[in-house]
Amino acid sequence: MTAAIIFLIILSALVLIHEAGHFFAARLFGVKADEFGYGLPPRIVGMVKVGKTWKKVSAKDQKKYANTIWSFNWLPIGGFVRIKGESGENETDPDSFHVKPIWQRIIILAAGVCMNWALAAVLLSAGLMIGVPSLTDGIPEGAIVHKTEVTIGGVLPGGAAAEAGLQPMDILVSIGGVQANSLDQTRQEIFARGEAPVEIVFERGRDRMAVTVTPKYVEELGRTGLGVSLLDTGIVSYPPVLAVKNGIILTGLYTKAVVITFLDLFRELLNGDGTLASQVSGPVGIAAMTGDVAERGFANVLQFTAILSINLAVLNFLPIPALDGGRVMFLILEGLRRKPMNRRVEAIVHNTAFLILIALIILITLRDIGRVFGG
């Protein structure tokens, strides 16, 4: 339940930031926002400024007001902004979306994903100031290591560690009663045990556990071992200027990685390979991951939220109808044709694509439910 609440808070923040980008860009260019809502309709209640006073707007009130309606809605997932004229109504009014130059409309549409990228940079920078788990080898000058740990980077399938239940990202506490203080010292302690069973105490999230592992011969190494790769890690923090610099750099690197992943996904789908597609998670899968991340601390939640924000930005700006990228694509076509697109045809294309996207989300969600609750 806690994981679901944290996930809803994160998702709502990401969507509201996205919609706020559209809102502020629209207002910058004199386009009216009919309504800005938290959650998805139907409306619970709204408020709108009429003259110098605020008026309550009921769920049944469909009247057009001169100012923006600020509303709370029944489905507490994200939010929305209704830009005047975006759906084709009142599109000849001077404060309507479609009367503005194409470049202004593109900026309004792109502002949402830009806000998601900006949010990611802010969150990553904040996480770097607080301190995040990181490799301590080759950290930039000026970085501060608060706590050193020996972390399992990988587990060999079928190896002694895998059979004992050890997993990547487990933090080693002790080997046979000897504290795991550094990578070299821990390796020496493991090798000194030979083939004798050894008790390993480790941390996974907030839990501390112990297992007894009997080393096995590892063909890849040509000797007996646990079958793990170990990393020197620590809680690394940065001064503000360095944190902001690295936060921006990380945002670019994560964006590149996400774009490459999407390209690989589309390439596999075209080739009939569903390997990556089988790993895609929907709301339920991400909510389950949120719980695991939350156990690792606040800085990890910031980093996870930043990565989700980048994913949302990239996904939203793909040239797919119904998404911001698809709408920008239609505006570019409008500019090339030098005349407006057929609004009815454009609406049919976007609505059809939206229904297909919803169907895909439902299928992925059903698969995630089977994974999470079906064992």
From TrEMBL:
Please provide, alphabetically and separated by semicolons, the GO molecular function terms listed in this UniProt record. metalloendopeptidase activity
User: Which positions, given as ranges, span the membrane?
Assistant: 102-124, 347-366
Q: Does the keyword field hold Transmembrane?
A: yes
Which membrane topology term applies here? Answer: Multi-pass membrane protein
Query: What's a BP term from Gene Ontology annotated to this protein?
Result: proteolysis
Task: State the needed cofactors, names only.
Answer: Zn(2+)
Pfam families, per the entry: PDZ_6, Peptidase_M50
Localization in the cell: Membrane
Domain annotation PDZ: ranges: 139-206
Tell me if Transmembrane is a UniProt keyword of this record.
Answer: yes
Annotated Gene Ontology cellular component terms: membrane
Q: Sorted alphabetically, which SUPFAM superfamilies does this protein's record hold?
A: PDZ domain-like (SSF50156)
- Domain of life of the organism in this record? Bacteria
Q: What keywords are annotated for this sequence in UniProt?
A: Hydrolase, Membrane, Metalloprotease, Protease, Transmembrane, Transmembrane helix, Zinc
Protein family per UniProt: Belongs to the peptidase M50B family.
Q: Extract the PANTHER family matched here.
A: MEMBRANE METALLOPROTEASE ARASP2, CHLOROPLASTIC-RELATED (PTHR42837:SF2), REGULATOR OF SIGMA-E PROTEASE RSEP (PTHR42837)
Q: What is this protein called?
A: Site-2 protease family protein
